[in-house]
Amino acid sequence: MSRRKIALIGAGNIGGTLAHLAGLKELGDIVLFDIVDGVPQGKALDLAQSSPVAGYDAKLAGGADYSVIEGADVVIVTAGVPRQPGMSRDDLLTINLGVIAKVAEGVKRYAPNAFVICITNPLDVMVWALQKASGLPTQRVVGMAGVLDSSRFRYFLAEELNVSVEDVSAFVLGGHGDDMVPSVRYSAVAGVPLPDVVAMGWTTQERIDAIVDRTRKGGGEIVGLLKTGSAYYAPATAAIAMAESYLKDKRRVLPCAAYLTGQYGVKDLYVGVPVVIGANGVERVMEIDLDASERAMFEKSVASVRVLIEAAKGLNPAFA
Ligand SMILES: NC(=O)c1ccc[n+]([C@@H]2O[C@H](COP(=O)([O-])OP(=O)(O)OC[C@H]3O[C@@H](n4cnc5c(N)ncnc54)[C@H](O)[C@@H]3O)[C@@H](O)[C@H]2O)c1
Ligand SMILES: O=C(O)C[C@H](O)C(=O)O
């Protein structure tokens, strides 16, 4: 059987890390595209030269012409700019909306059958714009944020409780902004709900509240430390989990920015919710019950996404 093809649009920090992880996991052959000619070719060659030592077989190539992505099975989009300290993700709207419009043209022309994962920020608007401008089916265009935010939440919880990260499960819902909704009620340690773990005296509600707050601001914490860009190892790892679930039809249940058609009372918007990812893309949206306070937080987060969508429509009439 021939190998699957994974196209990475944007060969910066996340793009390079995605290529490395996709290679190490032998997910398929990999192409990198970037507008800065030389960078995608250079990263592809460098990574290819790591493959004999690491022991993986994959063809790696790069280019500054969209034709390199032709026939890709999976496209992961990181093209655009990251924020700098002092900025919010929303400050990237104008510049990255222009980038995404071009990316959508390239994907529509060269990889219309791909499963497309958008990472570029502000995420929920960029994935919406990518789907609208490319015209690809909504179940094959998703945004990566929830897997990353949930992974941060899991890591902080595991550290607090002094247990393996493998035994902590958690969901973060809503938009990928500071008002995202880390769900305490649906988080668990080895299946034991987090509120019960608090009741057992393993930690306190105050400490959980602080972890929720740190999770919400997790991206900004890293931007503040790096000073020249944003997180890339964890974001790339998260997107690879989504790509792998699609390519191997694993049907993992992952929190992703998915197109909603009325679920959670939301229509024509991409928002982070748990979904099943299989061979057809987003196979199913899991509509979990939200209590009054969770619903209020979720709706606040959705309202922030809506405001940004309206701003995007104002910036580019093609989206109106
Ligand atoms: N969704 C998330 O959870 C999440 C997490 C981390 C970062 N991000 C976002 O991902 C994006 C990329 O982050 P990064 O750290 O890889 O940034 P980076 O600056 O390292 O890489 C971005 C790359 O995009 C390229 N680029 C710019 N315009 C382009 C275009 N028109 N076509 C093709 N390539 C183009 C640049 O040349 C650069 O190589 C940022 O917008 C960042 O905010 C999102
Ligand atoms: O915070 C950022 O700007 C990047 C990304 O959205 C993140 O959460 O790490």
TrEMBL record:
Residues 5-143 form the Lactate/malate dehydrogenase N-terminal domain. SUPFAM superfamilies: LDH C-terminal domain-like, NAD(P)-binding Rossmann-fold domains. Substrate binds at residues 83, 89, 121, 152. The gene is mdh. Belongs to the LDH/MDH superfamily. MDH type 3 family. Gene3D superfamilies: Lactate dehydrogenase/glycoside hydrolase, family 4, C-terminal, NAD(P)-binding Rossmann-like Domain. The active site is at residue 176. NAD(+) binds at residues 10-15, 34, 96, 119-121. This is Malate dehydrogenase.
